[in-house]
Every structure is written in C-alpha cells, then in structure tokens.
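Priority: medium. Attachment 1 of 2:
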C-alpha cells in the first residue's frame, strides 16, 4: 500500500501476536487499512475477532510484532514508548465503552484535566476548544458541576466525548462507545460523533459489533479472526448470514 498525505492513519502488513505459554496466539494478522482525513470508519466484527487489539495498535497503546502504523507521516510502530505517548497525546482522542471518568471530579474537572495533560506537551490553549462550547455542542450545558455518579449513562458518555475532543485531536478512536447505553442514548451519542466529525473535521475510527451503530459511518471494515474480510460503504453494508455478528 502506498502512503498518502490524504490519510490520517495507515497500516501496512500489521501484525500482533500474543504469547500464551509456549503458544503464539495471533490477534491481528496482515492488516492493511487506510483512513482518510476527515473520514468516519467503523470496524465491525464478533467478540474476539481482534478489533479492540487493532484499535489499541492504532492509538499507540500497544506495539505491534510486525508491520507499520503511519500517523501524519510517522511510523509509530518503530517508536519507543515515550515517543508513542507523545504522538498519542498530540493527535489522538479516545472514547471508551465504560466512560473512564474520574468519579472524584466534576464533568468540567474531567475535561480541564485533559486540557492540562495536553498542555504539558507544549501546545497552548489556542489549540483547544472552550469547555462551555463543547458542553453546548454535546447538549450537556448545566451539567458542568455534576460528578459522574450524578449523570446518566448517556450524559457520562457525552462528557467522555467532550474530554476526547477538547484539544481538537486530528483522530478520534472510539471503543464500543454505545456498548453501555440504551438504544435512545446510543443513537444520540452516535449522532453527536457524526456531527463532531462533520463540524470539526476529525477522522473517527469506531469499533462495534452493532450493525446499527456501524451504519452511521462513511465506511465499514469487517474483521474476523484477526483479518480484514472486506470494506464497504455504510449504505451497502449487510452483516454476513448465519449470525456472524
């Protein structure tokens, strides 16, 4: 695969193998994908297919056993841990299934902490959005001083999204962002991710096992057994027969 300046993320022959005793267990096998700048991509597949491992590789949380991960022209697969952390802090925002908010902080406190951590990398406040603007964009104005236990699941996930986008990273990685939500809140969170993608121009990679969630993306990448099965525009996507998902 040829690298392109139009791509936010590329992988080339990406592999991740875990060692279990004396046995090698492949989790990601020979994966070549490219996500364009400003594109919303869903990675879909059954539990255990390797999609979470792939997302962690894309975000620099894991170092692959082989291949390349190219972000903004940099192959992060070959970087030391500290260098990968710097790239992650500068360019990537995460949204997790379990929210991962600090319960002792208010909603604003969680977001301000993300700004402070990012600021330690030397970029000024001109690169981040204002808290009030983000709360307004995500429909949670008035919840700024609430702690996580005082928020509904949908509100907690919107705070988590606010934390991910506050510093305007070029890439958002979302790990089953609707997995802990009911259908109404799930749809609301998906629509907000779509709006953020369109209004802020961030590239989004979302993993999911839910075809309804995947349908909001521009493109769906299908995984099984650590490999890419295929890639389709969202409007032509249909899950495999026999209950694949």
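Attachment 2 of 2:
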């Amino acid at each position: 695969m040829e690298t392109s300046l139009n791509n936010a993320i590329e992988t080339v022959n990406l592999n991740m193998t875990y060692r279990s005793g004396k046995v090698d267990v492949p989790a990601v096998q020979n994966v070549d994908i490219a996500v364009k700048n400003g594109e919303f991509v869903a990675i879909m597949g059954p539990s255990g297919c390797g999609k979470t491992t792939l997302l962690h590789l894309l975000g620099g949380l894991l170092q692959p056993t082989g291949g390349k991960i190219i972000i903004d022209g940099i192959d992060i697969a070959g970087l030391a841990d500290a260098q990968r952390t710097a790239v992650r802090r500068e360019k990537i925002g995460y949204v997790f299934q379990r929210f991962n908010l600090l319960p002792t902080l208010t909603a604003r406190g969680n977001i301000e902490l993300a700004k402070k951590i990012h600021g330690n990398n030397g970029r000024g406040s001109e690169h981040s959005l204002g808290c009030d603007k983000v709360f307004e964009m995500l429909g949670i104005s008035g919840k700024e001083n609430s702690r996580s236990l005082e928020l509904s699941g949908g509100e907690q996930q919107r705070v988590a999204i606010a934390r991910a986008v506050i510093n305007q990273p070029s890439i958002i990685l979302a790990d089953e962002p609707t997995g802990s939500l009911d259908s109404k809140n799930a749809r609301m969170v998906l629509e907000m991710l779509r709006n953020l993608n369109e209004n802020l121009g961030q590239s989004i990679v979302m993993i999911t096992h839910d075809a309804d969630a995947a349908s909001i993306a521009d493109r769906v990448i299908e995984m099984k057994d650590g490999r890419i099965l295929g890639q389709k525009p969202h409007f032509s996507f249909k899950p495999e027969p026999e209950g694949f998902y």
